[in-house]
Design brief:
Four copies of one chain form a homotetramer. Chain A is mainly α and 213 residues long. Chain A is built from eleven helices and no strands. Chain C binds a DNA duplex (21 and 21 nucleotides) through α1, α2 and α3.
DNA sequence: AATGAATGAGTGTTCATTCAT
DNA sequence: AATGAATGAACACTCATTCAT
């Protein structure tokens, strides 16, 4: 009889193995086209084992997603939260976000699948991330404005827009399966976020009053 | 007996009716959860009729999608292509894009579904739109730079980033089902695209060289 | 296009065919051991057809049961209800009940299966039959007593006991698969119900007061 | 190290504990719906232990049943066999039978389950009980007739009918889950068995010849 | 041309039983 | 002797598509 500790360790390890195999197969085939048979074949375990660890296919799939989101949160917490300079925070935030997904491309597929297959679950998770993520962007904008670095933008809407450009970049990367790395887009995205396309902001700002927005 | 023309007209009308009903049901339930039975119930025709007009469920779904994309292209062609001033083109482009989807929210759902269910078909369509859409953004950036309005940005990557922010905005709108209109985001998105968040671009630009990007 | 009437007729006929095949297979193998595949093989139709007519296996099984109970009720209504003489009603009632099941032995199996697999559904049906069945036995006892034919028995409990002897006979017949007919038991059962085993009731009755009951 | 005797005693005790837990769970949920997991949870032992004592679920279930039948036989042997007066034997037999099941209601559920799930095993057991049970009823009828207490009934069929009324009473009690005790039915059942419903047997007997049986 | 009854391939999930520790 | 993690055979049910009328 194994000690309880050893047993728990093995169970935990097995759980992770299942999540790894499932992530691989779900990312390759999509949620619907993935057969539980394919996952267990990948794993080399019996079907009962799968169902011992996860109640059903949906639960397994969402567990893969939640684990990924947890890992993203952790990276944000470690690499981005400590940064205090608002400009630097945007720059590093964008790069870190992109690098995270460069290192875990399967997770992009998983996220896209969750969005369309389990919109409710995705929405809830998305809202939960507001604190760690959009909330932080908002705070960063506030800090930048207070320090005189940033223009007095509409904080909420601008934070949304910044979040959206990241999501959108991920999305188009997912669709086009570009061979380049996401992180290669850091420069262009960051420059756009920080400086926009206009040559001289102030002047542009003056002129834009004449423009019909 | 109807004349051939009249018959064709009727057939065309019936085809549109089917697409309308299918769009409604697909948007409401998603592609997978939509039953052909639900579509014909919405239509009030027999199942054979559906299959007379569309080879299968997938074809019908993609036809709904293609029709929507065609309509978007048409709007872009009429409302955006004629604009020559680069700044104005960005501003109006964003607004027009958002207003188009405010007027056809079901299409947002359809697009999101196509993306995850039929990635290949979506990719192909996406690439086809490059000429009308990303290609136009690139041309606009070139024009703006030539006219001295825009900074000398990396045209391809910046165009991608602009496209991504629109896609991302659509995406987050889709997820959060915000009650506000998409068009309400025009100001914030446009300001970000044009001016970025930095207070004084040139100065910021100078400083950013010190920043680690 | 078939007329609506003709269509309904065909649907009704098909429904009955399915019930017949299902009764055969359920009676032969029992509810649990019956595969839907076996039923459709017996029928020679596709599986979808089965599920078009009956929502699931349980519904189909209970439909077989309910149809049988309906037929029993009908036989009781036609052959037993009209009888007015209390003694004759008991005699004919027992015989009719036994003959009904001699003519539909599969139904005995179905009833036994329902009892143990779907006790709740059986109980409800049993209670519903009280009006047509136990209620009638009670009324018959009352009439017999009023006419001076019957002793002044406890009507409710005696009616239950009469019902129980019929159920029990069915039950033991089911278990022992006797080759003889149920109806052959009519004489013995009826004699017991009417006269008991004692030689002279009155005397016995007197004596039985001394007995410890 | 335990002595062989002590070990055997422990094994025997453990076996009884398993049977007790299994009876409880089988009676509560029925054979099919009972999971071996539920039984071991009730017991607080591992699954391997269960299978050490009983080859499989069916064997365990039938062991519960056989133990109950054995106990019934023992009660009959002790309480009924010694009775010599035929009338008293019927009266006490019915009461003893009912009281036995009042004291072990779970066994009623077990018996009903065995009947429909393992008809063959039940039939065999039923036949084995003929000697102790139906055989005894037949002998009692013979004795009653010889003593002049009982009418000259068809011994086999009447014995069957008497057995059937007991089975049927058990059955309807099982279905209706009456709150009253089975033993409360003794009077009505016994009266029916002994005296029937007719007021004056002899006269009735005469008249019944005119009746169509 | 329109209908809708019939089809049947495809798949997630359960749970009794085994056996390595 | 006892454990409980692992097993995998078994099976009900769905729904896009067809085709006879």
């Amino acid at each position: 009889m194994l000690s309880q500790d050893k047993r728990n360790l093995l169970i935990q390890r097995r759980r992770e193995e299942i999540l790894d195999a499932a992530k691989l197969v779900f990312a390759r085939n999509g949620y619907r086209r993935t057969l539980t048979d394919t996952i267990i074949a990948e794993l080399g375990v019996g079907k009962g084992t799968l169902y011992k660890y996860f109640r059903n296919k949906k639960t397994l799939f969402l567990a893969v997603f939640y684990r990924g989101m947890q890992q993203l949160r952790e990276v944000i917490r470690v690499k981005i939260e400590p940064i205090t300079d608002p400009r630097q925070k945007i720059i590093n935030g964008v790069r870190t976000y992109f690098e995270f997904f460069d290192n875990d491309k399967e997770l992009i597929e998983i996220i896209m699948q969750v969005r369309s297959e389990f919109k409710d679950e995705y929405r809830q998770n998305f809202l939960e991330m507001y604190n760690d993520y959009i909330g932080q962007i908002q705070q960063n904008l506030k800090n930048g404005i207070a320090l005189g670095q940033f223009r007095e933008v509409d904080i909420e809407k601008t934070a949304d827009a910044i979040s959206d450009i990241l999501q959108g970049t991920l999305q188009s990367y997912y669709i086009l399966k570009a061979n380049e790395k996401l992180a290669d887009k850091t420069q262009a995205v960051t420059a756009l976020l920080l400086k926009g396309v206009l040559k001289i902001s102030n002047e542009a700002s003056a002129q834009s009053r004449e423009l019909q927005i």
